[in-house]
Amino acid sequence: MPRTPFLTANWKMHKTVAEAQRFAAAFLPLVKDATAVEIAIAPPFTALSRMAEALAGSNVSLAAQNVNPEPQGAYTGEVSALMLAEVGCRYGIVGHSERRALYREDDALIARKALALLERGIRPIVCVGETLEQREAGATFEVIGAQLSGSLDGLPGERAPEIVIAYEPVWAIGTGRTATPEIAQEVHAFVRGRLAERFGAAAQAMRIQYGGSVKPENVDDLMARPDIDGALVGGASLDPEAFARIARFRA
Ligand code: 13P
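Above: inputs. Below: predicted complex with 1,3-dihydroxyacetonephosphate.
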Protein backbone atom coordinates (compact mmCIF):
# COMPACT_ATOMS: atom_id res chain seq x y z
CA MET A 1 0.00 0.00 0.00
CA PRO A 2 1.60 3.33 -0.98
CA ARG A 3 2.16 5.64 1.94
CA THR A 4 2.67 9.37 1.42
CA PRO A 5 6.09 10.23 2.87
CA PHE A 6 5.77 12.52 5.87
CA LEU A 7 8.48 14.91 7.02
CA THR A 8 8.00 16.81 10.27
CA ALA A 9 10.10 19.58 11.78
CA ASN A 10 10.22 19.41 15.57
CA TRP A 11 11.62 22.76 16.58
CA LYS A 12 11.61 21.91 20.29
CA MET A 13 12.30 25.11 22.33
CA HIS A 14 13.69 27.08 19.39
CA LYS A 15 12.53 30.15 17.47
CA THR A 16 10.64 33.21 18.52
CA VAL A 17 7.56 34.25 16.55
CA ALA A 18 9.66 36.58 14.39
CA GLU A 19 12.20 33.83 13.70
CA ALA A 20 9.43 31.37 12.85
CA GLN A 21 7.92 33.82 10.37
CA ARG A 22 11.29 34.38 8.73
CA PHE A 23 11.70 30.62 8.43
CA ALA A 24 8.30 30.27 6.76
CA ALA A 25 9.09 33.04 4.26
CA ALA A 26 12.33 31.32 3.26
CA PHE A 27 11.09 27.72 3.41
CA LEU A 28 7.73 27.75 1.61
CA PRO A 29 9.09 28.75 -1.82
CA LEU A 30 11.68 25.95 -1.57
CA VAL A 31 9.04 23.23 -1.14
CA LYS A 32 6.06 24.62 -3.03
CA ASP A 33 6.32 21.97 -5.75
CA ALA A 34 7.00 19.10 -3.31
CA THR A 35 3.49 17.77 -3.69
CA ALA A 36 4.19 14.03 -3.41
CA VAL A 37 5.12 14.37 0.26
CA GLU A 38 3.44 15.70 3.35
CA ILE A 39 5.32 18.30 5.40
CA ALA A 40 4.54 19.64 8.88
CA ILE A 41 6.22 22.07 11.25
CA ALA A 42 5.91 21.88 15.04
CA PRO A 43 6.93 25.28 16.44
CA PRO A 44 6.71 26.24 20.13
CA PHE A 45 3.16 27.00 21.33
CA THR A 46 3.78 30.74 21.24
CA ALA A 47 4.37 30.68 17.48
CA LEU A 48 1.47 28.36 16.52
CA SER A 49 -1.07 31.03 15.77
CA ARG A 50 1.18 33.20 13.61
CA MET A 51 2.61 30.14 11.87
CA ALA A 52 -0.93 29.06 11.02
CA GLU A 53 -1.30 32.37 9.18
CA ALA A 54 2.09 32.04 7.52
CA LEU A 55 1.36 28.47 6.32
CA ALA A 56 -2.25 29.10 5.23
CA GLY A 57 -2.85 27.97 1.66
CA SER A 58 0.55 26.25 1.48
CA ASN A 59 1.42 22.54 1.30
CA VAL A 60 2.91 22.65 4.82
CA SER A 61 0.76 21.88 7.83
CA LEU A 62 1.00 22.84 11.45
CA ALA A 63 1.82 20.50 14.33
CA ALA A 64 1.96 20.85 18.12
CA GLN A 65 4.82 19.52 20.24
CA ASN A 66 2.68 18.49 23.19
CA VAL A 67 -0.86 18.54 24.60
CA ASN A 68 -2.60 18.06 27.92
CA PRO A 69 -5.10 15.16 27.85
CA GLU A 70 -7.74 16.99 29.91
CA PRO A 71 -10.38 19.01 28.07
CA GLN A 72 -9.97 22.06 30.34
CA GLY A 73 -9.39 22.95 33.97
CA ALA A 74 -6.92 24.05 36.60
CA TYR A 75 -3.72 22.85 34.86
CA THR A 76 -1.42 25.86 34.99
CA GLY A 77 0.88 26.08 32.01
CA GLU A 78 -0.92 23.44 29.95
CA VAL A 79 -2.64 23.55 26.56
CA SER A 80 -5.66 21.47 25.49
CA ALA A 81 -6.39 19.65 22.25
CA LEU A 82 -9.31 22.00 21.58
CA MET A 83 -6.94 24.99 21.80
CA LEU A 84 -4.58 23.31 19.34
CA ALA A 85 -7.41 22.47 16.97
CA GLU A 86 -8.62 26.05 17.12
CA VAL A 87 -5.28 27.44 15.92
CA GLY A 88 -5.18 24.93 13.08
CA CYS A 89 -2.93 22.08 14.20
CA ARG A 90 -3.31 19.04 11.99
CA TYR A 91 -0.76 16.94 13.91
CA GLY A 92 0.46 16.69 17.48
CA ILE A 93 3.65 15.06 18.78
CA VAL A 94 3.20 12.94 21.90
CA GLY A 95 5.64 10.86 23.91
CA HIS A 96 8.83 12.47 22.70
CA SER A 97 11.79 10.97 24.56
CA GLU A 98 12.62 14.39 26.01
CA ARG A 99 9.18 14.51 27.58
CA ARG A 100 9.42 10.89 28.72
CA ALA A 101 12.83 11.54 30.34
CA LEU A 102 12.67 15.17 31.55
CA TYR A 103 8.98 15.34 32.48
CA ARG A 104 8.46 11.72 33.49
CA GLU A 105 5.71 11.02 30.97
CA ASP A 106 4.68 7.38 30.89
CA ASP A 107 2.92 5.30 28.26
CA ALA A 108 -0.50 5.61 29.92
CA LEU A 109 -0.31 9.42 29.86
CA ILE A 110 0.91 9.38 26.27
CA ALA A 111 -2.04 7.19 25.24
CA ARG A 112 -4.44 9.67 26.87
CA LYS A 113 -2.78 12.55 25.04
CA ALA A 114 -3.04 10.73 21.71
CA LEU A 115 -6.72 10.02 22.33
CA ALA A 116 -7.41 13.65 23.30
CA LEU A 117 -5.85 14.77 20.01
CA LEU A 118 -7.84 12.26 17.92
CA GLU A 119 -11.05 13.38 19.61
CA ARG A 120 -10.35 16.90 18.31
CA GLY A 121 -9.43 15.70 14.83
CA ILE A 122 -5.67 16.11 15.32
CA ARG A 123 -3.43 13.28 14.17
CA PRO A 124 -1.02 12.07 16.83
CA ILE A 125 2.66 11.43 16.11
CA VAL A 126 3.48 8.89 18.81
CA CYS A 127 7.21 8.68 19.60
CA VAL A 128 9.01 5.57 20.79
CA GLY A 129 12.70 4.78 21.15
CA GLU A 130 15.27 2.93 23.21
CA THR A 131 18.22 4.36 25.12
CA LEU A 132 21.80 3.34 24.41
CA GLU A 133 21.85 1.23 27.59
CA GLN A 134 18.73 -0.60 26.51
CA ARG A 135 20.13 -1.24 23.03
CA GLU A 136 23.42 -2.50 24.41
CA ALA A 137 21.55 -4.79 26.80
CA GLY A 138 19.72 -6.33 23.82
CA ALA A 139 16.38 -4.95 25.02
CA THR A 140 15.48 -2.78 22.01
CA PHE A 141 12.51 -4.79 20.76
CA GLU A 142 11.18 -5.41 24.23
CA VAL A 143 11.31 -1.67 25.02
CA ILE A 144 9.78 -0.57 21.74
CA GLY A 145 7.10 -3.27 21.97
CA ALA A 146 6.11 -2.16 25.47
CA GLN A 147 6.08 1.53 24.52
CA LEU A 148 3.89 0.80 21.51
CA SER A 149 1.35 -1.28 23.36
CA GLY A 150 1.16 1.20 26.25
CA SER A 151 1.11 4.38 24.17
CA LEU A 152 -1.54 3.08 21.76
CA ASP A 153 -3.72 1.61 24.50
CA GLY A 154 -7.37 2.49 24.06
CA LEU A 155 -6.97 4.22 20.70
CA PRO A 156 -9.85 3.35 18.36
CA GLY A 157 -8.81 0.92 15.62
CA GLU A 158 -10.80 2.74 12.96
CA ARG A 159 -8.59 5.81 13.47
CA ALA A 160 -5.38 3.85 12.89
CA PRO A 161 -4.55 5.39 9.48
CA GLU A 162 -4.43 8.83 11.16
CA ILE A 163 -1.86 7.70 13.72
CA VAL A 164 1.83 8.25 12.92
CA ILE A 165 4.61 6.48 14.80
CA ALA A 166 8.04 8.08 15.15
CA TYR A 167 10.93 5.75 15.96
CA GLU A 168 13.56 7.91 17.62
CA PRO A 169 16.44 6.00 19.22
CA VAL A 170 17.44 8.18 22.18
CA TRP A 171 21.13 7.64 21.44
CA ALA A 172 20.69 9.22 18.00
CA ILE A 173 18.87 12.39 19.08
CA GLY A 174 20.97 15.52 18.91
CA THR A 175 24.16 13.46 18.98
CA GLY A 176 25.03 13.51 15.29
CA ARG A 177 24.99 9.73 15.55
CA THR A 178 22.24 8.55 13.18
CA ALA A 179 21.00 4.99 13.25
CA THR A 180 22.21 3.29 10.09
CA PRO A 181 19.44 2.72 7.55
CA GLU A 182 19.76 -1.01 8.33
CA ILE A 183 19.23 -0.52 12.07
CA ALA A 184 16.33 1.87 11.49
CA GLN A 185 14.66 -0.43 8.93
CA GLU A 186 14.97 -3.39 11.30
CA VAL A 187 13.12 -1.52 14.05
CA HIS A 188 10.58 -0.03 11.63
CA ALA A 189 9.73 -3.51 10.32
CA PHE A 190 9.27 -4.66 13.91
CA VAL A 191 7.02 -1.65 14.62
CA ARG A 192 4.90 -2.38 11.56
CA GLY A 193 4.55 -5.99 12.69
CA ARG A 194 3.27 -4.83 16.08
CA LEU A 195 0.92 -2.33 14.41
CA ALA A 196 -0.45 -5.19 12.28
CA GLU A 197 -1.11 -7.23 15.42
CA ARG A 198 -2.86 -4.25 16.98
CA PHE A 199 -4.69 -2.74 13.99
CA GLY A 200 -4.72 -5.45 11.31
CA ALA A 201 -4.49 -4.47 7.65
CA ALA A 202 -4.60 -0.74 8.51
CA ALA A 203 -0.96 -1.06 9.61
CA GLN A 204 0.03 -0.98 5.95
CA ALA A 205 -1.39 2.54 5.66
CA MET A 206 0.28 3.89 8.82
CA ARG A 207 3.36 6.08 8.48
CA ILE A 208 6.42 5.30 10.59
CA GLN A 209 8.90 8.19 10.78
CA TYR A 210 12.53 7.87 11.75
CA GLY A 211 14.05 10.54 14.00
CA GLY A 212 17.55 11.11 15.32
CA SER A 213 20.17 13.27 13.58
CA VAL A 214 18.37 13.24 10.22
CA LYS A 215 20.25 15.57 7.88
CA PRO A 216 20.38 16.37 4.16
CA GLU A 217 23.37 13.99 3.95
CA ASN A 218 21.62 10.90 5.30
CA VAL A 219 17.93 11.34 4.47
CA ASP A 220 18.10 9.73 1.02
CA ASP A 221 19.50 6.44 2.30
CA LEU A 222 17.02 6.32 5.17
CA MET A 223 14.03 7.05 2.93
CA ALA A 224 15.05 4.30 0.51
CA ARG A 225 14.12 1.65 3.09
CA PRO A 226 10.71 0.02 2.70
CA ASP A 227 9.33 0.73 6.18
CA ILE A 228 10.81 4.22 6.66
CA ASP A 229 7.96 6.51 5.64
CA GLY A 230 9.32 9.83 6.75
CA ALA A 231 11.40 11.69 9.30
CA LEU A 232 10.94 13.65 12.50
CA VAL A 233 13.72 16.20 12.37
CA GLY A 234 15.12 18.32 15.18
CA GLY A 235 18.33 20.29 14.65
CA ALA A 236 18.42 20.21 10.85
CA SER A 237 14.83 21.44 10.65
CA LEU A 238 15.80 24.83 12.10
CA ASP A 239 17.45 25.81 8.83
CA PRO A 240 15.10 26.37 5.87
CA GLU A 241 17.53 25.12 3.22
CA ALA A 242 18.43 22.00 5.19
CA PHE A 243 14.83 21.07 5.99
CA ALA A 244 13.78 21.77 2.40
CA ARG A 245 16.48 19.40 1.15
CA ILE A 246 15.23 16.79 3.63
CA ALA A 247 11.64 17.26 2.42
CA ARG A 248 12.90 16.91 -1.15
CA PHE A 249 14.76 13.66 -0.41
CA ARG A 250 15.69 11.43 -3.31
CA ALA A 251 14.92 7.81 -2.61
P1 13P B 1 17.73 15.78 16.08
O1 13P B 1 17.29 15.73 14.63
O2 13P B 1 18.24 17.11 16.50
O3 13P B 1 18.64 14.63 16.41
O4 13P B 1 16.40 15.57 16.95
C1 13P B 1 15.58 14.50 16.66
C2 13P B 1 14.30 14.66 17.42
O5 13P B 1 14.26 14.49 18.61
C3 13P B 1 13.11 15.05 16.66
O6 13P B 1 11.96 14.93 17.44
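The pocket of 1,3-dihydroxyacetonephosphate is lined by residues 10, 96, 168, 173-174, 211-214, 232-236 (CB under 6 Å).
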